[in-house]
Structure formats: C-alpha cells, structure tokens
Amino acid sequence: MSEATVYPRADVTVDMVVFGLDPDHDRLVVLLIKRAQASQPFDGYWALPGGFIAMEESLEASARRTLEREAGLTLSYLEQLYTFGDPQRDPRGRVISVAYLGLVRPEEVSIHADHPATADVRWWAVDDVPELAFDHTHLLETAHRRLQTKVSWQPIGVDLLPEAFTLSDLQRVYEIILGRSLDKRNFRRKIMGFDVLVPLDQYRQDGHRPAQLFRFDSERYTELLDKGLAFEL
Amino acid sequence: MSEATVYPRADVTVDMVVFGLDPDHDRLVVLLIKRAQASQPFDGYWALPGGFIAMEESLEASARRTLEREAGLTLSYLEQLYTFGDPQRDPRGRVISVAYLGLVRPEEVSIHADHPATADVRWWAVDDVPELAFDHTHLLETAHRRLQTKVSWQPIGVDLLPEAFTLSDLQRVYEIILGRSLDKRNFRRKIMGFDVLVPLDQYRQDGHRPAQLFRFDSERYTELLDKGLAFEL
DNA sequence: TCAAAAGTGTTTCGGGTACACCCATGT
DNA sequence: ACATGGGTGTACCCGAAACACTTTTGA
User: Fold this and answer.
1) How many Å is the Cα radius of gyration of chain A?
2) Is the CB of B180 under 7 A from strand D?
3) Would the CB atoms of B9 and A5 count as touching at under 8 Å?
4) Residue A105: which H helix or E strand, with range?
5) Distance A204 CA to D2 C1' (A)
6) Tens-level pLDDT at each residue, chain B (233 residues)
7) Nearest CA-CA distance, residue B163 and chain A, Å
8) Residues A103/A173, Cβ–Cβ less than 8 Å
9) Residues forming CATH 3.90.79.10 domain(s) in chain B
C-alpha cells in the first residue's frame, strides 16, 4: 500500500525449481546452473536458475522468461511455491525470492543431457544434488515436498510425460515421486475412474506386448473440478 | 540472485487477511481498514491492513508488526498465503504484495468491536464485505478458500477460540468455516480420536447443562505429525 | 415442567487395499 | 520356448456417514 514512498527497497527475484524425468524414466531430476567462478559469493556452486523480475511483467511471466533465457526450456506446468524473504538469505543484501515450481516433459530434459560433466547447465538427480548456493537446498526440499503432496490430489504427473503415454509410464511417475510402489490394478482402476485419460488409436511397441497409449484430457479435468469432484491419489 | 544491480526495483508490501469470530460466535469476520479520504487512489475504500516490509526483518515479522501497528492485534496463527505481483494491481506503480493469512482469538476481535459504524478499523462479516480497494477482494477470496481447505487437515480451528473451549464451540467453528452442518457424534468421536484435546477441570455454566472445557495440546499435535499421523476433517 | 444445550453407540455403506494369473510380443 | 512387460476381477476390512434418545441445568 505505497503512498509516494521513501522506504529503501529490496530486490525481488524469481527462483525456479524445475523437475523432470531422467531419460531412463527412473529418477526425478532438477535443473541446476553453475555459478561463474568469478561471481562472489558461492562462486562455482550450483544453484537454482533465477533472475530479477522485470517491472512490466507478472511474476509468472518472469518465471517463464527466466527459464527460457537461462536454459531454453518450456514448462508444461508452473505454480507459485513460496516467497522466501529472510534478511540473511543473500549475503549481499536484501533479496526477496518468489520461488516457483515447474515441470517439463522429457523432450525438454534432453536439451541439457548432452555433456553433463562439463556443461554449466544440467539436470541432477534430486536425491543426489550437490550442496547448493544460498538457501537453495531449502527451496529444493520445499518444492520436492510440495510436489509429493500435490501429485496425490492433482493429476500433474502427466506434465512430466510426453503427450502420449501408457498407464505404466504414468504409474512409474507416481512411484518415483512418491517414493513407494503402487499396486498396478488399483492404480489403473483409480485413474481410469476419473475419466480424464482418453485412449489413442496407437500402441507402443517396444519388444513386448504393445501398450495402449493415452493422452490427458484437460477440459474433462476442468469439468470435474467444477463439479466438485476431487482427484485423489 | 543479485549481482550488484541496476534493475529498477518494485515495492514489496505485506497484506494481511485476518479472520476472527463474531462475538455471537456465528459468523466469520475479517479485519478491514478504511483508507483516508485524501489518499488516492481508492480514497475512502475499505482495504486489508498492510504495509511495507522493513529491510532488516523477515516477512513474517513484517506481517506481525504491521498488524500490531495498524490494529493493535496479536495473532494466534499466521501463514503465508500467496504473493501477488500483477503489474497492474496498484495504479501507482509496481507493488508486489506478500499476502498472509492470520487468525485471532475472540479477545482480539473485541478490540475493534466498539463503535463499528464510525471507526476506520473494524471487523466485517466475511460474506458481507463492501467492495475493497486494489485487488483485495481477490486476496480475501483466496484466503477464505485456503482457510476452508486447511481447516480440514490441520486443527487450526482452535486458533479462533479462547484457550479453553467446549466441543460445541469447536464444532461451531468448523461449521462456520466450512459452511455446512456436521454430525455432533461423528465430530466428537473424530476429534477426540486424535487425542490432542485435554479436558480441563472446568465446566462452562450458561443456563443449561454444564459443558466440559478443553484446551488444545500443541505438543501432542506436533508428536502426531512427526509420527506421520494425519489430522483429517 | 419445560426449554435448551450436553452427551453418548450402533449399523450401514463405500472405497481402499491386498492379491495371482493370462496375454501379446520379440528374440 | 522363454523372457518381459501389459492387462484384468474379487474378497476383505476399515473408516465415514447416518441416525435418536437421555441428562443436566436454569427459568
């Protein structure tokens, strides 16, 4: 509620916790950026991608732009996570960070999968990240928890998969995120009961019995929500 | 992630959505402040209490201080709600608002219950608030929804009541917040099953059969959470 | 004695969970 | 023929929801 103000102002940044799936589809990965050797503090540390907000754009637009600029990525899902404003979180001064949680499809993950050892932008397995700059380890943990709870009442698992996917793919996503195995029959019954997956006229052929491919029907999902029906697990 | 920066900076404020209970214990109320007639824009409109963050204090501390300063209130519950950063939300310039959701006990509500018609700080029934300044109607709706969902999996209903309360008091709180009536026997069984209410050696006498008073045992509740047990409804 | 709120158990129903076998394909 | 993942149905159990009467007090 600013009257013409004389208050000193904090910097406002957006930090991004972007999750994807390993090419092997068996681990959750997160996008990190290596800070330049010359940039004090935390030089050489890995950190979450982020950047200053622009004056004329919304926070969400800042989030998407930042990611486009720093990693050339397009998100399939984006939600605001939390705002971190501890006065000590950045040693250089008061920086308030609005953190966002993002998800990408596998095509996007492959963008930085090339030279993992040397590149300064790369995907890291979530349970094997190095020590991060600033309070970013804390942000990452917060995002991971949020993903785990959210996935069980919103079908955001599909945003980690290609447009067309099999039920086993989807189950694997849930198992990876939740960190426990699920019963195949119960999972299928549950998911199909929501009536938000539509079968395609395609099957995946991979040396075994072909698997039915589905796509997520987001209109149907919106209908469901409006009707007050809850997606659960 | 600021390097020594040349970016223009946005203002950062904290806006507070503080809920309480009507003295009659039958409505949810929210604290509003009337903007001075001279303060463009939205002069004379009612608005949520709020203020600029101080450079050396945390966001949460800013929230509590703001409320203390503008209304002399002490909160029994406080949580970050969401950060609103639409470039157009304040016509005077870029203002990013970190919104907080707060709850107060009935003693605090009575502070501004005196001369409701004339005072410039007063409690309003949530489903009867006037048109608010800025995007505050939107903030209020967001907070109200959050309260409704949160109350069903965290026992924050107790933060709207005095230290000592009866089971009927607590049930009424839930009914007011959720907007529907609950079965008395099921409610009691459920609540007592969590083992977080301890009976006091006191009864409330109000012209009818005396009612057992309880207090909320927050240590026990923390234990529960650690054991992974979930409070539900 | 009446009005008003406090307090108390049992039955029913539905969803969650556990569980094992056959099918289609490629090698 | 065999290995690999795809696909399907049923029984049990527990927690949620529905439901009505007795008790205690003040007026």
Assistant:
1) 20
2) no
3) no
4) none
5) 22
6) 444 445 678 999 999 999 999 988 889 999 999 999 888 899 999 999 999 999 999 999 999 999 999 999 999 999 999 999 999 999 999 999 999 999 999 999 998 876 655 679 999 999 999 999 999 999 999 999 999 999 988 999 999 999 999 999 999 999 999 999 999 999 999 999 999 999 999 999 999 999 999 999 999 999 888 877 778 77
7) 30
8) no
9) 3-149
Nucleotide nearest to B189 (CA to C1'): C8
Q: Following DSSP, what letter does each residue of B83-140 receive, concatenated?
A: EE--TTSSTTS-EEEEEEEEE--HHHHGGG-SSTTT-SEEEEEGGG--PBSTTHHHHH
Which fold does the domain B156-226 belong to in CATH? Arc Repressor Mutant, subunit A (1.10.10)
Residue A4 amino acid letter:
A
What is the location of CATH 1.10.10.10 in chain B? 156-226
- The class that CATH gives domain A3-149 is alpha beta
The reported pTM is 0.94
Q: Take residue B114 and report the two structure tokens written for it.
A: 């005196």
Cβ of B11 within 8 Å of Cβ of A5? The answer is yes
Interatomic CA distance for residues B95 and B133, integer angstroms: 14
Question: Is A15 in contact with A89 (CB distance < 8 Å)?
Answer: no
